[in-house]
Sequence to fold (220 residues):
Amino acid sequence: MTLSHHHLPARSGQTQSLVVLLHGFGANGAAMLGLAKALSVALPDTAFLAPNAPDLAISRPDGRMWYTIPELDGSSLDQAEARLQSSAKLLDAFLDAQLAAAGLPASALALVGFSQGAGMCFEVGPRRAEPLAGVVAISGRIKRKHALAAETRSKPPFLILVGAEDRLMTAHDINDAADALAQVGIPVQHITMADTGHGISDQGIQTAKDFLRHVLGGAA
Fold:
């Protein structure tokens, strides 16, 4: 199986880098195109790709999911982890294919994920053999933290964003993710967005722009 995706070409017409955006539970790749357009203003030589998660979301007939959520669908933790790992393999293959098609190295690709998509960022980013340019994880939990030390293969810098008024993520969730990454030597920035719920604010978008410009460097 290959992941279908939505595409926003580089504004300049010259693709020197890629940003792959991962949607949250019950959404799809098209839902990330608004964020892609906002980020593209600062990254004219960057193409944006937003894949659709492989499975239909429980109770969301028009949406998709990267992995099951036991609290919503009655799946077990083991089932959720197995689905997460299966989606991670599909996403890995997608990233490899897109880099090959663009003729770019892994260092010219950044991941951006929201909510469940951020969970995918935590799963995939450190386990890639070739380090990505960087990862932006917005309002998401880290999964399989127990396996991170043994499975970390590269250490791309992470930017973690969370809304101060987010009712789905707790401070413990975000600190847990930041601490887990830091413990394996991954550089982490952790920003709390004022007056923001489960989403991204203008402040967060600007912070993400600055981070992506920095990590993509000359490639962007």
The helical segments are 33-40, 70-73, 77-102, 116-124, 148-151, 171-183, 202-216.
